[in-house]
Write a structure and sequence with these properties.
With 196 residues, the protein is an all-alpha fold. The chain is built from eleven helices and no strands. Keywords: DNA-binding, Transcription, Transcription regulation.
Length: 196
């Protein structure tokens, strides 16, 4: 394995251990989980803290999320593709929230918490969701950017244990709630006469 490949493998193992045990992990645990000698760690990083920081940065990078969203076919029926989208986003949010709670973080790392980094991520996510909605945007009675905002916001809130008061929302609950409120045509809370 090259030093870069070894480092990436150690970062992956460290992230898994952080999710299980929090910040109390040791280099010995990391080495055992990676199947390497403890000294090998210090050939690719200078300290455990460097490895932990790299693992946390990896947890917040869009990498896996981007790949999984790319797999959603925009030609699917609207509800189906939104269910897949929300499911992927919830898995990401829940994993991130779980890691943050386990290691005592109350917000993302500073380099992601700054407005520029957060804005870039939100813009990227909004663009990808808009692509997934695709031509179905014409079926909405709100602008697509408002739809994307509502979907992302409800997915985020419904995936956070504390925000949702311990009652996490399912993808079906998120998608159906947003669709009922945004699809063009008669709404569930209107009579046929009101819809005319």
């Amino acid at each position: 394995m090259s030093p870069d490949e070894r480092r990436e493998a150690l970062v992956h193992v460290t992230l898994d251990l952080l999710r299980q045990h929090g910040l109390g992990i040791t280099t010995r645990q990391i080495a055992e989980a990676a199947g390497v000698a403890e000294g090998t760690i210090f050939r690719v990083v200078e300290s455990k803290d460097e490895l932990v920081e790299a693992a946390i940065a990896k947890a917040f990078a869009p990498g896996d999320l981007a790949a999984r969203l790319e797999e959603i076919d925009p030609a699917l029926p609207l509800r189906e593709k939104l269910l897949r989208l929300v499911s992927v986003m919830q898995q990401r949010f829940r994993a991130t929230f779980g890691l943050m709670e386990r290691i005592g973080m109350v917000r993302p790392p500073d380099h992601l918490h700054d407005s520029e980094g957060a804005d870039r991520f939100r813009a990227w996510l909004a663009e990808r969701i808009t692509e997934i909605v695709g031509d179905d945007a014409a079926r909405l009675r709100v602008p697509v950017d408002e739809f994307v905002h509502l979907l992302r916001l409800l997915t985020f809130a419904g995936s956070h244990r504390h925000i949702a008061d311990g009652r996490l929302l399912t993808p079906e609950q998120v998608v159906d709630t947003v669709l009922v409120g945004t699809l063009a045509g008669p709404r569930a809370d209107t009579t046929e006469e009101d819809a005319r």
